[in-house]
């Protein structure tokens, strides 16, 4: 009784083990000539994350036997940790005979390092690929990474693939026939030519628009298009193949520079096309802030950590704000924004698809269409943006035509109004003429009466004229007497600065006095002795008509290089002269409201001149102070 139960129990355990093994067994991808392409997914791939990055093939065999490999949980494998090496194991079966040559191809052209271990009898052949290797080292000179599949092995061949990259990558592995690869590559490069050709055509079109319209928005759009083209070339591997095949290091950051340029000039173009400065001033300020933020982030990537270029999700900010700006001004009634919104809808859709794939939240297997969806959306965006530019030009032309028509209508109305006014004025002139003719006869009679009155007034006017001449002479004599009295009063020792200023009230009066005093005996150039002169740049200065030497009115006087107001300097000279130099610098400072040190320095200079000209000013009277002004010691 015990033995049958034991056998039954063992049978159940064996059945469960076999069932569990069948569940966990890795699916083998069979080569079939009827299916020329197959994308690996789900249970067809098992993987192991080597966090040390140092395990070799033997260590990976041991890890597999220890059950450390796991099934791929996503449709497309993704590397999540930049410091780890990811090992993938696939099985390719040969249950059916094949007449084709097969290759294993990797889609993502940004993977830094791919090492393929292909089974060869009892060992493995190692093939190194990746964007960190020179392009010339590739067997197939194609943008994708491809390796030949052995055709003379057993029914099930196990391949190990080691992936390591400085950023998160999608490990899209495709089994293809060589004929399918060649046809696909030719079609792909053809569409690349169409894509980049369209970018050049759009760029040339906008360049011609820039030359014709002279609007900076076209220049922004040209740079944006070229930046998009460069970014797509970096992402597709075309730039590595044709522009820098021997400089793999450029692959690490060239796309970041292109993406930054595209973002900045896309926002600048949106600003100009949507006329945000007028249509949405607050939103325009927000966009300026986004530009500043994006520039700061770019500089941080360049100077601090280039790995930050991998966070392409940052581009969602300028893209979304531009899309929102287009929607906002469209709702406000700005018609040129309609095609802009449609174009950016395509671009936003492509960006979302690409972001979902990059973040591994895309629920479907990644196909060629998904992988190149952003490129298709770029084309649609450029197409509709061109429509938007043309629509804006058309609307501007329509508005211009309407404005011209309004001007023509207004001119016609003005002409009709002018004719009406002319007719009205002619009628008024005729009526006025009749009135004038009637009044002219009355005026003629009155003129006769006025003639006799005028004769009488003429006689009275002559008498008044004689009286005015006599009064004018009396006024001149009285004025001269007043000036003499005032001058004599001012020249008294006890006169204050307010009374002194009545004769020399301002800088202009002082300069005129200096000019008359300095050149009272005539002008002679100090450089060439020429006696002819013209007015200089400064007030009352004189410029030699021969050599061009200009002499200011204060040059070669005691006032040269003096910084105090000139009328106060005059008054200081007058006080020093009238007190015979006995007034103190403290008193001068109190009277003139000038620092004592300045008064002391200037009064010392005046005393020196007084000492030198003691004999000359001894009997000069009230005019003696003016003889101190001209500084003969500075004559040339």
How would you characterize the overall build of this protein?
The chain is elongated and about 145 Å long. It has helices at residues 2-24, 57-65, 178-213, 216-236, 238-242, 254-273, 276-279, 281-303, 316-331, 337-358, 368-371, 373-490, 497-503, 507-518, 566-578, 585-592, 596-612; strands at residues 29-30, 37-39, 46-50, 70-71, 85-93, 102-106, 113-120, 123-129, 145-148, 156-164, 173-177, 533-535, 542-544, 550-551. It has 636 residues and is α+β, with helices and mostly antiparallel strands. Helix content is 56%, strand content 11%. 27% of the residues are buried. It contains 17 helices and 14 strands. The termini are far apart. Helix 9 runs antiparallel to helix 10. Strands 1, 3, 4, 5, 7, 8 and 10 form a 7-stranded mixed sheet that branches. The protein has a 4-stranded antiparallel sheet with strand order 2-11-6-9. Strands 12-13-14 form a 3-stranded antiparallel sheet, with no helix packed on it. Among the domains are: 29-184, Sandwich (Immunoglobulin-like); 215-402, no CATH class; 497-521 and 553-628, no CATH class. The longest helix has 118 residues, at 373-490.
């Amino acid at each position: 009784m015990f033995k049958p139960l034991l056998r039954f129990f063992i049978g159940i355990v064996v059945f469960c083990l076999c069932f569990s093994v069948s569940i966990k067994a890795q699916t083998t991808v069979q080569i079939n000539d009827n299916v020329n392409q197959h994308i690996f997914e789900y249970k067809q791939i098992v993987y192991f994350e080597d966090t040390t990055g140092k395990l070799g093939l033997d260590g990976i065999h041991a890890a597999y036997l220890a059950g450390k490999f796991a099934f791929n949980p996503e449709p497309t494998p993704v590397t999540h940790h930049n410091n780890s090496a990811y090992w993938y194991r696939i099985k390719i079966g040969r249950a059916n005979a094949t007449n084709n040559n097969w290759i294993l191809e990797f889609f993502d052209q940004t993977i830094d390092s791919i090492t393929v271990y292909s089974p060869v009898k009892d060992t493995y052949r190692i093939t190194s690929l990746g964007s960190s290797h020179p392009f010339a080292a590739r067997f197939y000179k194609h943008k994708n990474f491809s390796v030949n599949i052995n055709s003379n092995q057993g029914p099930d061949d196990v391949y190990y693939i080691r992936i390591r990259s400085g950023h998160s990558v999608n490990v899209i592995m495709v089994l293809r026939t060589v004929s399918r690869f060649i046809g696909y590559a030719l079609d792909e490069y053809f569409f690349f030519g169409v894509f980049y050709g369209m970018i050049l055509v759009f760029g040339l079109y906008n360049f011609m628009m820039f030359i014709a319209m002279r609007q900076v928005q076209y220049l922004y759009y040209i740079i944006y298009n070229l930046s998009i083209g460069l970014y797509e070339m970096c992402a597709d591997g075309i730039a590595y193949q044709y522009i820098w095949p021997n400089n793999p290091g450029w692959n690490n950051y060239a796309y970041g520079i292109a993406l930054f340029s595209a973002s900045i000039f896309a926002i600048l173009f949106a600003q100009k096309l949507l006329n945000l400065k007028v249509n949405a001033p607050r939103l325009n300020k927000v966009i300026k802030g986004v530009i500043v933020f994006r520039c700061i982030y770019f500089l941080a990537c360049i100077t601090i950590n280039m790995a930050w270029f991998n966070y392409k999700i940052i581009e969602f900010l300028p893209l979304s704000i531009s899309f929102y700006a287009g929607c906002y001004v469209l709702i406000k009634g700005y018609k040129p924004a309609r095609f802009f919104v449609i174009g950016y809808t395509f671009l936003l859709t492509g960006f979302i698809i690409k972001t979902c794939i990059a973040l591994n939240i895309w629920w479907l297997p990644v196909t060629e269409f998904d992988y190149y969806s952003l490129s298709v959306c770029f084309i649609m965006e450029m197409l509709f943006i061109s429509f938007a530019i043309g629509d804006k030009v058309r609307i501007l032309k329509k508005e211009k035509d309407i404005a011209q028509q309004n001007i023509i209508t207004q001119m016609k109305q003005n002409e009709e109004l002018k004719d009406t006014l002319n007719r009205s004025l002619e009628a008024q002139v005729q009526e006025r003429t009749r009135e004038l003719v009637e009044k002219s006869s009355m005026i003629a009679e009155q003129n006769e009466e006025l003639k006799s009155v005028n004769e009488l007034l003429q006689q009275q006017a002559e008498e008044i004229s004689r009286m005015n001449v006599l009064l004018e002479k009396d006024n001149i004599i009285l004025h001269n007497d007043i000036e003499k009295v005032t001058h004599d009063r001012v020249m008294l020792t006890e006169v204050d600065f307010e009374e002194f200023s009545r004769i020399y009230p301002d800088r202009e009066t002082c300069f005129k006095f200096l000019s008359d005093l300095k050149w009272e005996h005539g002008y002679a150039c100090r450089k060439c002795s020429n006696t002819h002169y013209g007015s200089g740049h400064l007030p009352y200065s004189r410029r030699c008509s021969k050599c061009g030497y200009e002499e200011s009115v204060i040059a070669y006087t005691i006032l040269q290089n003096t910084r105090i107001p000139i009328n106060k300097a005059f008054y200081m000279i007058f006080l020093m002269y009238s007190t015979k130099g006995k007034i103190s610098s403290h008193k001068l400072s109190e009277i003139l409201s000038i620092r004592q040190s300045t008064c002391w320095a200037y009064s010392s200079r005046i005393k020196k001149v007084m000492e030198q000209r003691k004999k000359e000013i001894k009997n000069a009277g009230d005019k003696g102070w003016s003889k101190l002004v001209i500084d003969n010691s500075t004559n040339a």
